[in-house]
Amino acid sequence: MSTLRQRLSRWVQSRTLKGLTPGPYDIELRKDLRVPMDDGVELLADLITPIGATGPRLPTIVIRGPYGRRGMVAGQARALAREGFPVLFQSCRGTWGSGGVFTPQIDEQRDGMATHRWVRKQPWCTGRVVTFGPSYMGFTQWAVAGRMTADDPENAPDALCLLVTMPDFGAITWDNAAFSLRNALGWTQMMSRMINREMLPLFLGMLRPDRRLLRGFGTLPLSGGDTVAAGRAVHWYQDWVVHERLTDGYWTQQSHTASVVDVTAPIYMITGWYDIFLPWQLRNHAALTEVGRPPLLTVGPWGHSAPGMGAVAIRETAAFLRDRFAGEPDGRTAPVRAFRTGADRWHDLPSWPPPGTAVQAWHLHEAGRLHPDAPDGGVSFYVYDPDDPTPAVGGPSLEPKQGPVDNAAHEARADVLVFRGDPLGEPVTIAGPPVARIRFRSSRPSFDVFVRICDVHPDGRSMSVCDGIRRIGGIAAAEPGPDEDGFREVTVDLWPAFHTFAAGHRISVQVSSGAHPRYARNPGSGEPAATAAETHRATQEVSHSAAHPSHIDLPMWPSS
Fold it and tell me: According to the UniProt record, where is the region Disordered (predicted)?
């Protein structure tokens, strides 16, 4: 690169990765390298190398993703090259000049394995090969790591750097049997426009609400949403809505959760409390910890695409890899760094959840009270209308702005039950995933139970902390049996949290039957989601029986 282009590249990096000072090296870019796959298809990749790198030989980084190799998406790759790492940045099959047809998740294992074998044969490979990337570019890491460790250890990655990701996208697409409409349809529209080079609609859709997407969210049956939002039926979206069961071969062939514990290479993870993949990433961390290989973990106050996370991820990735491969200590004092919301404080912890955490049940009382004491009985009820679905207010998403959202107006809706604790005499901290156990009865054969925890401030703001959903009675729903009165205990796993409710604040729990369009509304019929078109109002009841109380288990952490 010319000196002027190097300066411009550094300036762009400083703007796109705010808070990160570009590394000491200028970089050289070789575009459109052709990487052969086992079936003869060639995938395109860019090689970004540091100029004049000295000191210990650092590993070569492989990044594989479907979002292109130019502009902002290449910022992290170039930032790592400026730190002294050679980086191969490859476009997935069927995207941005790579051959073949893009079918999300399906081809990433075979293509990733072929790429790793090819990289190690190249003269510019430094001998050690590691992987890096967020979201889909993290999935491509999981796709190869466990399989190659077992079947081809000489070519397996020597380390993984996993940012806001998980190894099984089916589990988030059908989250506890509820279809993640906003993420699935929004991502489908974006990728369809990328593949078809519809750049103006793609760009405009990132700047303002997209009317076609909003109409797609409102479309029934679900199988028609892609035609409305993207202007065409998209083959993978059609597969997603048809395959409701995660045990279907369509999903099991692309799930790499089982091979997570086979990975023996060191792992660095970073995520945020408002990320769409958070629960699953922490479960992967727990699984590896259980077998004696705990990854290095950072959890911050971020959403999936929060601008503040990128700079931290680059700094910590570079430090992690230098520690493992160049003998330069990374400066970490503990394996887990976690930001405690509500207190706005970082903690260095020996593990996650932190030691000393204990579960305490808080019960839902008939009069809208939340308290550790058992309830006295009674029933609360509301009517859910899928033609006026309970809206999504906050919560994890792919949208840029994420974090706590005021739910005060939302809680005034007739289809939202609210249970509030007394003002706290001292701070209370939760650390881990809360679990709600709601005694629930519906007039319809299929229904959703959505539970959210909020932090109610003295000024009346009710700020979201974490939430979760579960569908009962659908094609793929796991069904707890009803009792003689038709109530059943519905268990809802909420997003993990590390949050302090300050003295004078109140803990609040919402119970409703949806969060549209984050999750597709439940029509109430129990018919296949892809074809269900008729909607049915439902009367929903929550029991406060003393013998079988509705309650939420809070993971309480004594330190504050």
Answer: 514-560
pTM score: 0.95
Q: Is the pLDDT of residue 12 over 60?
A: no
SS3 assignment, position 186: helix
Q: Is residue 410 over pLDDT 70? A: yes
The side-by-side arrangement of strands in the sheet containing 417-420 is 417-420, 506-512, 447-456, 462-472
CA 435 – CA 551 distance, rounded (Å): 9
Residue 203's pLDDT band, with cuts at 50, 70 and 90, is confident
- Tokens 């045990």 correspond to 247
Question: How do residues 525-552 score in pLDDT, each as one tens digit?
Answer: 999 999 999 999 999 999 999 999 999 9
In the chain, pLDDT over 70 holds for what percent of residues? 96
Residue 539's closest CA among 375, 377, 380?
A: 380
> Beta partners for 101?
none
Contact 122, 60 (CB under 8 A): no
Q: What is the rounded distance in angstroms from the CA atom of residue 520 to the CA atom of residue 530?
A: 11
Residue 449 pairs in a beta bridge with: 470
Q: Which amino acid is at 352?
A: W
pLDDT the model gives residue 307:
86
Query: What dihedral do alpha carbons 94, 99, 101, 103 form, nearest 10°?
Result: -50
Tokens coding 544: 């406060």
Name the one residue in this structure whose structure tokens are 């519809």.
198
Distance between CA atoms of 536 and 523, rounded to whole angstroms? 6
246 burial level (CB within 10 Å; 0-12, 13-18, 19+):
middle
- 530 Cβ partners below 8 Å, 6+ apart? 221, 222, 223, 238, 241, 242, 244
DSSP E strand boundaries for 73-228: 87-91, 129-134, 160-163, 174-175, 178-179
